[in-house]
Amino acid sequence: MAAEIKWQELMGGVLAFVGAVTASATHEIKNELAVINEQGSLVQELLQMAARGREVDPARLEELIGRVLIRVARADGVVKRLNAFAHSADLERQETDPAQSLELIGKLFGRLAGLRGLTLELAPTPAGLVLPALPVLFEQVVWACLRGAADVAAKGSTLRLGLTIEGDAARLLVEGELAQPPALPSAPLLTALRAEARVVEGRALSLRLPLAGAEG
Q1: Which of 73, 149, 86 lies closest to 113, judged by CA?
Q2: Looking at the predicted structure, is the pLDDT value of residue 214 above 70?
Q3: Mind listing the UniProt keywords for this protein, alphabetically (predicted)?
């Protein structure tokens, strides 16, 4: 008999997850805007100097504008990832492409990993896999696994994220130099995904998820 899904707890977790991702992404955008503002002020000063008849080094001006364009591109990348993430909450999408979701969450979590002195590596995901789950729930469980591992990972170490096929199921694995067993994702989330989670030898977090078409 399938375990009952606790929807109130599940939705509370989803809201907290969406908030955490949004806060991290907007903080990253804010940082890029701060640098753009700083470099823009320097460009403005050079133009004001030129207006007063002082000679301005074209190479210096080109350098500053180049820095602005780099930061604009970075901010644009964050906005695109955040936009893609927003579409994950579409409740009409009952299936997930794990390759797309893993790449998206890996990039969104990258900033938090960096703040903790960690490097995140994503292994290639087998093509054509489909999970019978809402994208936002799968992405939430990936985020939870990464956060749990990052909380106990040695500073300066690498977290490795990957997904493989095991019969009629997919195996998600987060490995790293972990000082202690990482926390598992919440029970309501695992129940909703029909997933089984366990810690492997204290150094990895393993998650088994059914593939589309598999028996429940």
Answers
A1: 149
A2: no
A3: Kinase, Transferase
Amino acid residing at 26: T
Note the pLDDT of residue 93. 77
Q: Which residues contact 170 (CB under 8 A, 6 or more apart)?
A: 98, 129, 131, 163, 164, 208, 209, 210, 211
How far apart CA 68 and CA 32 sit, in angstroms, is: 9
DSSP per-residue letters across the chain:
-PPPP-HHHHHHHHHHHHHHHHHHHHHHHHHHHHHHHHHHHHHHHHHHHHHTT----HHHHHHHHHHHHHHHHHHHHHHHHHHHHHGGG-TT---B-HHHHHHHHHHHHHHHHHHTT-EEEEPPPPTT--BSS-HHHHHHHHHHHHHHHHHHBPTT-EEEEEEEEETTEEEEEEE--BSSPPPPPPHHHHHHHT-EEEEETTTEEEEEEEPTT---
Q: Which amino acid does the sequence have at 207? A: L
Q: Which residue type occupies 74?
A: R
Task: Give tens-digit pLDDT for 92-128.
Answer: 778 999 999 999 999 999 999 999 999 999 999 988 8
Whether residue 197 contacts residue 206, with contact meaning beta carbons closer than 8 Å, is answered with yes
Residues 6+ apart with CB under 8 A from 138: 96, 98, 101, 131, 193, 209
